[in-house]
Amino acid sequence: MRICIARTQTDRPEEDAGAKACARRAHARAFTLVELIVVLTLLGLLIMVAQTNLFGVLRRQGFKSQVQDFVSAMQMAAFSAAENGRRYEVIIDPTDQSYLLREITSSDLSEVLEEEIITQGQFGTSCRLSYVEFDDGTYTNSDRSKFRVGPAGWTYGGKIVLLDEGEEPHAVIVNRLLPTVELVTGDPPLLTPKGKDEVPFL
Questions:
Q1: I want to staple 132 with a disulfide (CB 3.0 to 4.6 A). Which of 26, 65, 94, 145 is the partner?
Q2: CA-CA distance, 148 to 88, in Å (whole number)?
Q3: In the CATH scheme, what is the code of domain 42-185?
Q4: How many CA atoms lie within 13 A of 99 on its CB side?
């Protein structure tokens, strides 16, 4: 005759206590579903904020880089003309959103020879050409504009208005009395030269 003895929890109390302790420790270390959702949501928000800031920095850097390239081309024209006595021209095209700097070597100013081109560039989404205004009152946002400079300075002054990605204007100011080219924030009114009858006698 076989006798079976059923084990109860009281047969080995030390094993039951150890199992309960392990279960309590595992439960204490585990995350609930709500906690995981909260953590993942916070991580997602942090990543979105970081990406937004990064893209904003990159856009600002892209605008500064494109504006600096354009201003450098304008300054190169003025300084080269003052140094070597030759004539230069910066052609700005609002339709193509482009510009080029060339040295004028022929009497036909309407034709740009390949060997005359010194540098050329393209405006982009980070820096968009809005319009060009000369100090004689002419204005365009579609036709090609030409700023010519020689040893005596710029033939015409004016401003080139550029827009950043936030549609904020920035103006490149060309002063016919100065060889320097200035970049200012905003779209300031252009100072136009005065005729003799407009200047009061002192």
A1: 145
A2: 6
A3: 3.55.40.10
A4: 25
Q: Which residues neighbour 81 within 8 Å (Cβ) at sequence distance 6 or greater?
A: 87, 88, 149, 150, 151, 179
Residue 91 phi, psi dihedral angles, 5° rounding? -105, 125
Strand partners, 139: 133
The DSSP element (H or E) to which 44 belongs, if any, is: helix 33-84
Task: Report domain extents, the chain.
Answer: 42-185
Q: Is the pTM of this model over 0.70?
A: no
Read off the pLDDT of each residue in 143-152 and give the average, rounded to a whole number.
93
Block residue for tokens 């100065």: 178
Name which of 96, 75, 94, 99 is nearest 149 in CA terms: 75
